[in-house]
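Memo to structure team: turn this sequence into structure tokens by end of day. - J.P.
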Amino acid sequence: MYEAWNQFKSWYRVLPKLAAAVLAVFGLIVVFADFIAPYDPGTQSRNEPNAPAASLHFRHDGELRFLSPYVHPLKLADPLERRYEEDTTRKFSLGFFVDGEPYRFIGLIPMQTRLFGVRVADDGAPRVNLLGTDSLGRDRFSRLLFAIRFSLIVCPPGVLMAWLIGLTVGTVSGYSGRWPDTVLMGIADTMLALPTLILILTARAAFPLDLPPTRAAILLVLIFSLTGWAEVARLARGLVLSLKEREFVLAARATGLTEARILVRHILPNAMPTLLTQASVMLPYFLLAEVALSFLGVGVQEPQPSLGNMLAAAADVNRLSREPLLVLAPGLVIFIFVAAVRMAGPSRNGSTPPIR
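Reply from structure team:
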């Protein structure tokens, strides 16, 4: 029993590193989504609506070759039931760093090389849809990568801005006292009294729905930052009020240090671990808020993919019953990201604020 417990603790200590590796993968997707995705997220294949996931084959003449996969093209066997069959008379080899649809890397550099795809890019070559296609024949895997990119471009800046606003308001309120504290905390309490998600929905609905993706992203960042700062402000105020009466602060004040230096040099460093933990809690919440907006139809609009509007496909009960894992893949991505953020967050290291 003791040995099993020690083994469990060893695995438990690895979790933050594993979570950090998962978050690094998400970061790579944000930067290299165009390169990793085999197709443009808006490209339609009208002959393959609601196609199943591509089957990769590794057996060549009875011998397994894991480094030489190939696919068979699909043909629609039953249009009413959307049932597909493989044309086993033809096969196409897959490879890495193949030419595909042109794109601009990071929106600047014209490129055509994709991470993987069919080696022979002719009109008869099939598409490699790792997660199948949606009702318009668009590759779900490519759309999922771009949906992850959009969510992670919107949410972290929103968290950062809300955190900075809350830190500033809470610090000023807790350190100034008297009427600034009353006014600022009165505003924060008003924000906390309002249902945040309803407030976000109302703010987003006040603007046109058909905004370009860039403007929609900027708008969401502003909405998140202006609606999510109150909890950080309350927490920062409480920490400042607690720390400014501690002995090390009184000693620093007795040595003649200015109030600004005491705040920056002694109080904020001791409050920062708890405030960073609060930021790690806000990030998944903002991600779920962005997903909810898109799921309800007031977030980013089609044809731009997002995790929310991709999850809306789960409303198709027939597709959900046939391929639940493929349809719910965006939900699985959300779960993995939220779990990774929580496991890699500052609250897991068990450290206490430094006393200086």
